[in-house]
Amino acid sequence: MPRSAGILMFRRRPSGPEVLLVHPGGPFWAKKDDGAWSIPKGLREEGEAAEVAARREFYEETGCVPDVDLILLGEFRQAGGKRVEAFALEGDFDLGGFKSNLFEMEWPPHSGKRRVFPEADRAGWFSIEAARSKILKSQQPILGALEEVI
Prior knowledge:
Layout lengths: L2 E9 L6 E7 L16 E3 L6 H13 L8 E7 L5 E8 L11 E5 L7 E5 L1 E8 H7 L5 H10 L1
Parallel strand pairs: 1-5
Antiparallel strand pairs: 1-2, 1-3, 2-8, 4-5, 6-7
């Protein structure tokens, strides 16, 4: 079963902690909001350490280089059985610097036309309470693990 790794960035605010989530790009997710957002994450390469993969994926999906120590939150089962090893990172990413890598796919389906889409089309800061409704249901336990750490 493929394994993934990702980073949940958080920042402390007087009203409570906020987390950085990304919205998946591409036509399937274009009109979905609640229950569609995710931590920046992706597949681990063969033999790649989880922390290395998490840092690479965070950079690819946000344009931000996570260059400080990561806090292990644990391993979480995703929908479909995939496992993601999640890390926390305290930081304050400026959304104006958001930039995601691109992927190509046939769109519309069976049209023979190829189109390019961002892997993540936007990023946002959310209170943990708001993030619970935005994040994929299978990633909600990652938010709980972060609350235990901070």
